[in-house]
Specification:
Strand content: 35-45%
Largest sheet: 18 strands, mixed
Number of helices: 6
Radius of gyration: 18 Å
Number of strands: 18
Oligomer: single chain
Helix content: 10-25%
CATH class of the largest domain: Alpha Beta
Length: 263
């Protein structure tokens, strides 16, 4: 029997929306080159690989081109698979051991709640070519987090209208670029898009780790620690966030769309 692999749409309760991730629960650690080959074959924003270590799981994430330090949607998808396949009881939390430290996941009323490190942005000068690569003449705010650049624009129309020069954007440095604005509808407090061509993902549909930056940014801006964000990609995604100092709680739903076997 080959290696089982599951595809899950994360940060959505509807199939073919949110952000798809592939999940492999391994019996033993695999070689890096093999995991990178599988991620390239799956050609999704991330493929997650898990191995049980005691009462926790070692978790690694690969884009089609590189291993990354932090990924929210593939962590949510991994927890979903562990509970759905009865590898962990649904009432029990999941502990993940990762390159970004220990992460946690709990299931509550159909929502997967993740405990992640906060990565607040610091004000920064826009690097040469950043705004031009986004097709923007100006921005309200530019900041830099541990991983990404953050650019705040004034309207949802401007955010949705961005058509990046991905080759130019890949030369900016950092993992990716978050573009965000305040929401104009009551069910969401902010809206965002995320571009990471340098990591092999031109536009990510629904990004958990970018919300580790967006949560403290908008919590301070709007004066409330608990918020709901919408990622305005073609697929769309909903992320609930709660800023808790040096940690961020992310919450989203997930749905399995495919099960298969690597032969």
């Amino acid at each position: 029997m080959g290696q089982r692999i599951v595809t899950v749409d994360a940060f959505t309760a509807e199939r073919f929306r949110g952000n798809p991730a592939a999940v492999c629960v391994l019996e033993r650690p695999a070689q890096d080159a093999w995991m990178q080959d599988v991620a390239r074959e799956m050609n999704l924003a991330e493929t997650a690989f898990l191995v049980r270590e005691g009462d926790a799981f070692r978790l690694r994430w690969f884009t089609p081109t590189v291993e990354v330090d932090l990924c929210g949607h593939a962590t949510l998808a991994s927890a979903h698979v562990l509970w759905e396949d009865a590898l962990v009881a649904p009432e029990d939390p999941v502990r993940f051991l990762t390159r970004s430290g220990e992460l946690g996941a709990e299931l509550e009323d159909g929502w997967v709640k993740l405990d992640f490190p906060a990565t607040p942005p610091s004000p920064a000068e826009a690097p040469e070519g950043l705004l031009e690569a986004l097709g923007l003449e100006w921005a309200i705010t530019v900041g830099k987090s541990r991983f990404d650049w953050l650019v705040e624009v004034d309207t949802i129309e401007r955010l949705r209208g961005i058509e990046p020069d991905f080759r130019a954007l890949a030369r900016i440095g950092g993992r990716g670029v978050i573009v965000t604005c305040v929401s104009e509808v009551p069910q969401y407090q902010f809206v965002s898009r995320f571009f990471a061509p340098a990591a092999g993902v031109d536009e990510d549909p629904a990004t958990g780790s970018s919300h580790c930056c967006l949560a403290p940014f908008w919590a301070l801006r709007l004066g409330r620690p608990e918020l709901v964000g919408y990622q305005a990609s073609a697929r769309g995604g909903e992320v609930r966030v709660a800023w808790r100092g040096d940690r961020v709680q992310l919450a989203g739903r997930a749905v399995t769309v495919m099960r298969g076997e690597l032969v």
